[in-house]
Structures are given as C-alpha cells and as structure tokens.
Design a protein that fits this description.
Elements lengths: L1 H10 L7 H5 L1 E2 L2 E8 L9 E9 L3 E10 L4 E10 L1 E2 L10 H11 L1
Antiparallel strand pairs: 1-6, 2-5, 3-4, 4-5
Keywords: Plasmid
Pfam family, one: 4HBT_2
InterPro entries: HotDog_dom_sf
Length: 106
C-alpha cells in the first residue's frame, strides 16, 4: 500500500524523497490502517488505486486494492502530516504540492 502511495506521488512529479530538498518539509505517516475483504495470497496480482484527500497541513491517501476478477481485496489509508525539516513543527502543504495533487485527480 505504501509503495502505491510512493508511485502516485512520483507519478505526479512530487516524489516523497524530493519534497524535503525542494520545500523544506517532509510528510511522515502519522496513521495508517487497512481492512481486508478477501485474502491476498502469494502470487496474486492486485491493482491498487490511490485517492488523495488534501488538507491544509495534511495529506490522506485512501487505497483500494482489487483482484484480477475485479473484487476488492482490501481498502486502507495513510495519513501524512506536513512538517518543517528545520523544527518538525506542522506546516501548511506547499501550494505546488496541492496543485499537483488536484491536477492529477481532476
């Protein structure tokens, strides 16, 4: 699930690992959860979609994983908070990041 989030962010040009250098903030995970509807077994192919939820100082990513037959394997989320690299205090998400996410989901 986390890798799907990394790929989503990289795909919109906002790779997690580049954000600290570009904006002097980072996006640590403060909460995450998943709920399985069906088992995922070794060798299964699943597709994971990410739906962002942009807040003022946070980024939520809601995930849905589906099996090849279209049935839901699990749903889950990651909650990230935007914090300064200088003092680890919460900060507003950079406008460029908000715009990139909004543009990618419209």
């Amino acid at each position: 699930m986390h890798r799907a989030g990394e790929e989503f962010m990289d795909g919109i040009g906002m790779a997690y690992w580049e954000i600290p250098d570009e904006y002097d903030v980072h996006l640590p995970i403060v909460a995450m959860d998943m709920e399985f509807s069906r088992p995922v077994e070794v060798g299964d192919t699943i597709q994971i979609t990410a739906e962002p939820d942009v807040g003022t100082k946070s980024l939520g990513l809601n995930f849905t994983a589906t099996h090849e037959d279209g049935t839901t394997a699990y749903t889950g989320f990651e909650q990230h908070v935007c914090v300064s690299t200088a003092d680890n205090q919460s900060r507003e998400l950079p406008d460029d990041l908000k715009t990139a996410i909004t543009d990618a989901t419209e």
